[in-house]
């Protein structure tokens, strides 16, 4: 791991230190508002001084609630652990009644009355299920993400949750990895902008305020680079790549005030993250300045013996604490073995106390002593539901990416009367909810069929032909053909079932599953206008589909308002404005395919260049790509001044005009490339973006401000460097198009 020189001016370190000090000195005022049942709010240090070894370890134990039939609850044994002060936090217990009941045990029956913190994976919302994170990344809209996170936090807060294991900030360049669905896509800059938005959205006006959740960016770090795209597989990543690609979103989340971080399951360059002292203590704490709580991922401490880095569970406990894991999620390694480890190695005591202090400070920042129990949030939940549904619908429409629209099939003409809905997903209400809706109370998503029926009423006719996930029969096929023949337009609802994405859902192929290629061929043979509506949680490789249908709309997993949002876009009430946050490859053999790859000495061309003899090198659809219902024209990229010194700023802008016939939103993107320097740098790097809305004929000057730091890079030692020289700059609609301008960063 490369070490960055200790940065005395590190604002993150200074900020967190203040919080630690502030949290301790502000305790007197907290005491005045303390719950009558809470322990006297001693300073954390005094509290630690009173704790037994078991009670200290208890604060580091994160217990998972257990599923009993349809209920998620705490077992009698677990309640007993709470009573004995041997649990610090509870995962997955949700609901005012359930959490208050268990909190009462902690506050009133345990010796020191230390409150518990209730945690949950609030990933796509709590009651209202919003689009999956990858889809939200496709909105390229940090304000929208902030709004979604804020509402999700309010909903979860009302049901007792105070800590969410979100956002997932794993940059991923390999769509075989099913967890691409949960993350921000392939680019560190976009991921960093969204990281801040997630953290700010969850944490609102400040930790501990009503309706806010503590965020927990995860999974530290480079989990998205699991070899072969196989979940839980080991990761080998150079220090340079770590700094350039995988760390930036975490750094931004820390700067935005994230008070906790989750360590990954996987090993990085040979050492599992939860036993990796260099990673957690040297890199995360010292270099990035993070002083919050580090929690393990589920069961990860128990896996240290399986990785083969601990001979037994006591050694696993020792290595995890030494590495810097403050809380053990669900493995019970700390609960059952940390005591023996500490008794055997007394030097661990200091590390244990530090970890306990961090957990107690975290709880103080959440105001758990003053407000251990749930409180209702005004206004009443009925009107929330309406607002939430509206937000879910608006969010979904902004995430859809129009990949193809030959002949202007979309938006559908108002004269269309007969619409055929074919494929396996038009009446599926589970899949659009995405992989993280588990254990969430709300019913299924509005299906495309339901929404279209609502929309058309008796002004049109809907014909339907499903498609099985097993083997289609001749009857299935005949029905598809008959339906397509009778219709004015065919809407194909295709893609992945929800369980094909998310954790433990890696794929070795990236085509359409369940024989859906045959379905597409059948529809194509009828030569009717057809629109493929693609549900999925990753980039797919679909060159045949793209050739066979005139229009293709990527809708990801849109959440509870799925059908309504899709109708809004199909019928032209909303214009599609999402852009790809990941490159779509042509085949699995091309992987990895990502836009910001390094330059080679032999760029793809003829013989003896970096190419394939049987496939193009470039993606099917590049990062940043997406069409609208209108067309935008980009003027030349201009900069003022053309050259600048280190402490100056430069403005780079271009005229963008809506030259089509409809209003539309464009995501204007700024890319740079260094033409020379010590390292071979990426072919392009995203450095800014803006969403603009233009009426037909309207034009707008879109400008970005660049400073020297925007042109810099992290070297393999973790030192941030900015090199003088010539840089190319693009203002373009995606990562492949556009004509570059040049700017020069001068010496000195
Ligand atoms: C395992 C997942 O990797 C992590 O993202 C999640 O937060 C935990 N399980 C808890 O559910």
UniProtKB/TrEMBL annotation:
Residue ranges of every copy of the Fibronectin type III-like domain listed in the record: 666-735
Span of the signal peptide: 1-28
Keywords from the UniProt entry: Carbohydrate metabolism, Glycosidase, Hydrolase, Signal
PROSITE patterns linked: GLYCOSYL_HYDROL_F3
UniProt xrefs under SUPFAM superfamilies: (Trans)glycosidases, Beta-D-glucan exohydrolase, C-terminal domain
GO biological process: carbohydrate metabolic process
Gene Ontology MF, one: beta-glucosidase activity
Highest rank taxon of the organism: Bacteria
Enzyme Commission identifier(s): 3.2.1.21
InterPro entries: Cellulose_deg_GH3, Fn3-like, GH, Glyco_hydro_3_AS, Glyco_hydro_3_C, Glyco_hydro_3_C_sf, Glyco_hydro_3_N, Glyco_hydro_3_N_sf
Family: Belongs to the glycosyl hydrolase 3 family.
Protein name per the record: Beta-glucosidase
Source taxonomy: Bacteria, Pseudomonadati, Verrucomicrobiota, Methylacidiphilae, Methylacidiphilales
């Amino acid at each position: 791991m490369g070490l960055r020189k200790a940065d005395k001016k590190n604002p993150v370190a200074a900020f967190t230190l203040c919080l630690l000090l502030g949290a301790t000195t502000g305790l007197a005022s907290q005491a005045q508002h303390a719950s009558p049942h809470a322990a006297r709010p001693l300073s954390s240090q005094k509290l630690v001084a009173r704790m037994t070894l078991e009670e200290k370890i208890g604060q580091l134990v994160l217990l998972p609630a257990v599923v009993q039939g349809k209920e998620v609850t705490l077992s009698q044994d677990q309640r007993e652990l709470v009573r004995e002060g041997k649990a610090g936090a509870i995962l997955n217990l949700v609901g005012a009644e359930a959490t208050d009941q268990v909190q009462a045990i902690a506050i009133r029956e345990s010796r020191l009355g230390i409150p518990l913190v209730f945690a949950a994976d609030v990933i796509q919302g709590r009651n209202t299920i919003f689009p999956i994170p990858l889809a939200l990344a496709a909105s390229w809209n940090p304000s929208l993400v902030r709004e979604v996170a804020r509402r999700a936090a309010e909903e979860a807060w009302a049901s007792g949750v105070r800590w969410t294991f979100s956002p997932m900030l794993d940059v991923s360049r390999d769509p075989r990895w099913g967890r691409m669905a949960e993350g921000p896509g392939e680019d560190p800059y976009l991921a960093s902008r969204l990281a801040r938005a997630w953290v700010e959205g969850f944490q609102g006006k400040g930790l501990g305020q009503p309706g806010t959740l503590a965020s927990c960016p995860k999974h530290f770090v480079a989990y998205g680079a699991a070899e072969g795209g196989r979940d839980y597989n080991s990761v080998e990543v150079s220090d340079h790549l770590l700094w350039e690609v995988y760390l930036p979103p975490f750094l931004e989340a820390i700067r935005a005030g994230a008070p906790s971080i989750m360590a990954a399951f996987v090993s990085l360059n040979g050492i599992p993250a939860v036993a990796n002292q260099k990673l957690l203590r040297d890199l995360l704490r010292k270099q990035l300045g993070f002083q919050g709580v580090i929690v393990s991922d589920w069961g990860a401490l128990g896996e240290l013996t399986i990785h083969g880095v601990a001979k037994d569970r006591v050694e696993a406990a020792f290595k995890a604490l030494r590495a810097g894991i403050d809380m053990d999620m669900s493995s019970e390694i700390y609960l059952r073995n940390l005591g023996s480890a500490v008794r055997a190695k007394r030097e661990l005591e200091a590390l244990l106390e530090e970890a306990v202090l961090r957990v107690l400070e975290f709880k103080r920042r959440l105001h758990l002593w003053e407000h251990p129990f749930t409180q209702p949030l005004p206004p009443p939940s009925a009107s929330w539901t309406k607002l939430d549904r509206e937000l879910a619908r608006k969010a979904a429409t902004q995430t859809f990416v129009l990949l193809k629209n030959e002949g202007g099939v979309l938006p559908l003409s108002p004269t269309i009367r007969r619409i055929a809905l074919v494929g396996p997903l038009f009446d599926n209400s589970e899949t659009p909810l995405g992989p993280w809706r588990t254990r969430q109370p709300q019913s299924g998503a509005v299906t495309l069929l339901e929404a279209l029926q609502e929309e058309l009423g008796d002004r049109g006719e809907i014909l339907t032909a499903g498609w099985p996930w097993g083997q289609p029969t001749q009857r299935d096929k005949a029905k598809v053909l008959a339906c397509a023949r009778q219709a004015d337009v065919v809407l194909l609802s295709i893609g992945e079932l929800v369980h094909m994405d998310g954790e433990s859902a890696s794929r070795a192929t990236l085509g359409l599953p369940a024989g859906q290629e045959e379905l597409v061929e059948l529809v194509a043979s009828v030569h009717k206008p057809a629109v493929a509506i693609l549900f999925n949680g990753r980039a797919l490789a679909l060159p045949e589909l793209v050739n066979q249908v005139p229009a293709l709309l990527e809708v990801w997993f849109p959440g509870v308002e799925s059908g309504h949002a899709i109708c809004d876009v199909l019928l032209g009430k909303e214009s599609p404005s999402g852009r790809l946050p990941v490159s779509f490859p042509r085949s699995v053999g091309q992987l990895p395919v990502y836009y910001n790859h390094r330059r080679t000495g032999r760029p793809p061309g003829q013989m003896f260049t970096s190419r394939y003899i049987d496939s193009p090198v470039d993606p099917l659809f590049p990062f940043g790509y997406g069409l609208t219902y209108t067309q935008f024209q980009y003027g030349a990229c201009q900069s003022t001044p053309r050259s600048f010194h280190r402490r100056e700023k430069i403005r780079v802008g271009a005229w963008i005009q809506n030259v089509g016939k409809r209003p539309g939103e464009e995501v204007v993107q700024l890319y740079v490339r260094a033409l020379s320097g010590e390292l071979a740098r990426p072919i392009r790097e995203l450095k800014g973006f803006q969403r603009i809305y233009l009426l037909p004929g309207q034009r707008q000057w879109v400008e970005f401000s660049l400073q020297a730091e925007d042109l810099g890079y992290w070297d393999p030692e973790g030192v941030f460097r900015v090199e003088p020289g010539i840089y190319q700059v693009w203002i373009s609609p995606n990562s492949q198009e556009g004509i570059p301008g040049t700017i020069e960063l001068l010496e000195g």
